[in-house]
Amino acid sequence: MRFYKLYRILSKPIYKLYEKWLWNQIKNGPFPIHVGIIPDGNRRWARRLGLESYYGHYHGYNRIREVLDWIWDLGIRIVTIYAMSSENCIFRPPEERKHLYEIVRKGLIELMNSERIHKDRIKVRVIGKLDLVPKDILEIARKVEERTRDYDGGVLNIALCYGGRQEIIDAVRRIVRDASKGRLREDDITEELFSKYLYTNGLPDPDLIIRTSGEIRISNFLLWQSAYSELYFCEAFWPEFRKIDFWRAIRSYQRRERRFGR
């Protein structure tokens, strides 16, 4: 017990020293323009503590709010959060989906009234297979998008009921539709044109994608856009993801040489 008390007393100043040391390593950049986040491990974190899955998702949501501030504080102005996959929206148990949608609903309302969103002029976009989303949430999403439509300080993409393969299929369908109407010729179809038919149209591809919980895969997230993204996998479950974990991801990004296949 005495050792534990001593650890609690010493751990905070040691953490602060390490945080300062890490900040000195990354503060001069370069920083990514676009960061993608796969916030994985909410349920496993809750189970480890003997809690219901809902508490993991709720604490995960609170962590997203903090991490967005960390990202924006570095001047990174494009963020894509993998809020719910299309599989989540179809295959998760109904009660769990209900709780997830409650958190999404709460989050969108908070974004609509967020002082930082309006102060920094962050445009909010909700992307994914939105016919799977409850109508009331979709209405709130459209209101947030409309209110921030003309903002030019950055972009926050919320990937909701999202799947990378589905995004590509939807893009192909739209291209075929336009071609059948004579708006496109076969020779018009290039990588640049294809990108314009994706949900992320108009945005640069992510420079860095961070995934938590120790899983080493991207799970159908931004499949087209991540072709040359730097990937960073963190062992921590998402609710326990710390600022130093985020800064370590930035440090790893800064140490890599990006060649884009050249």
Notable characteristics:
262 residues, Undecaprenyl pyrophosphate synthetase, 10 helices, alpha/beta, 14% strand
Mean pLDDT: 94
The Cα radius of gyration reads 20 Å
Helix coverage percent? 40-55%
Strand content: 5-15%
CATH architectural designation of one domain: 3-Layer(aba) Sandwich
The top level CATH class name of one domain: Alpha Beta
CATH superfamily of one domain: Decaprenyl diphosphate synthase-like
Number of strands: 6
Largest sheet: 6 strands, parallel
Number of continuous helical runs: 10
Molecular structure report:
The protein has ten helices and six strands. It starts with a helix and ends in an 8-residue tail after the last helix. With 262 residues, the chain is of the alpha/beta class. Helix 1 packs parallel to helix 10 (243-254), helix 3 packs parallel to helix 5 (94-112) and helix 5 runs parallel beside helix 7. The protein has a six-stranded parallel sheet with strand order 3-4-2-1-5-6, with helices on both faces. The protein is 50% helix and 14% strand. The chain has a domain at 32-163 and 208-254: Decaprenyl diphosphate synthase-like (Undecaprenyl pyrophosphate synthetase).
Topology of this structure?
Layout lengths: L1 H25 L7 E5 L3 H7 L4 H21 L4 E8 H6 L2 H19 L2 H5 L2 E6 L7 H14 L5 E9 L1 H17 L10 H6 L11 E4 L18 E4 L9 H12 L8
Parallel strand pairs: 1-2, 1-5, 2-4, 3-4, 5-6
Helix pairs in contact: 1-10, 2-3, 3-5, 5-7
